[in-house]
Structures are given as structure tokens and as C-alpha cells.
Design a protein that fits this description.
It contains six helices and two strands, in the order αααββααα. With about 120 residues, it is mainly alpha-helical. The longest helix is centred in the middle third of the chain and has 23 residues.
Length: about 120
């Protein structure tokens, strides 16, 4: 897995957890992602060094402005691609799995075209 793709997946997981509640700890990221605690700890260190996350005094993870922007972009792509695949008749589980792989490599132009087509179909 590419480093950027891995970072994007962790950021997306953090954002999903933040949607569930305000406190996100590395153990929560490990549980939701299925990665080991040492792998998550290493990834969080890299995201911290890249200025994508911060920690509060209780050890909770918070997205920085840059981290939130990237996480939001990836999560939006994931949801849009899942919806598009389901509209084509793909089951929800398969659509979500495929969207997870596609979201990291698809161009902005293709995403915009998919969004436009879905919006035309569902006014």
C-alpha cells in the first residue's frame, strides 16, 4: 500500500470516528481499522509529523485543518463512489469495499463527472 493511500485511510477512519463522538484515541483507530496498535501508533506519529493531526492533553486525536480537508475529501469520494456503484446494482458491501480502493486513485475530473451524473439522476 502506498504511503499516501495509507495516510488517507487513517485520516478517513479518524473522521468517521469523530462523526461518532468527540473523543478519538489511537486504540479506537486500531479497533475500527483492524490494524495493530503498533501500526496505528507509527501511523499517528507520521500524521502528526505531517501536520495532519494533533493530540489534546488527554491523548485524544484531533484533525488539523489540513488533515480535516484531506479526510473530508476522501470520505466524500468514498460515499459518492459507493452510491454510484450501488446505483449500478452492486451490493452495498462490495460497493463500499471497491469504493475504498478506488477513492485513492481516481482523478478529481472523474469524481466531478460521477457527481454530476448522480445529481442529474437524483434531482
Amino acid at each position: 500500500m502506498r504511503s499516501d493511500e495509507s495516510a488517507e485511510m487513517y485520516l478517513e477512519t479518524i473522521l468517521l470516528l469523530l462523526e461518532e463522538g468527540p473523543n478519538v484515541r489511537p486504540v479506537d483507530v486500531a479497533r475500527k481499522s483492524g490494524y495493530s496498535k503498533p501500526s496505528v501508533s507509527r501511523a499517528m506519529g507520521l500524521l502528526f509529523n505531517r501536520g495532519m493531526i494533533q493530540y489534546d492533553s488527554n491523548g485524544n486525536i484531533h484533525l488539523t485543518e489540513d488533515g480535516y480537508a484531506l479526510a473530508s475529501k476522501i470520505l466524500d469520494r468514498h460515499r459518492l463512489l459507493t452510491k454510484a456503484l450501488m446505483l449500478l446494482g452492486v451490493s452495498e458491501d462490495i460497493a463500499a469495499d471497491d469504493a475504498c480502493r478506488i477513492e485513492h486513485v481516481i482523478s478529481d475530473e472523474s469524481i466531478d463527472a460521477i457527481r454530476s451524473k448522480i445529481n442529474q439522476s437524483n434531482p
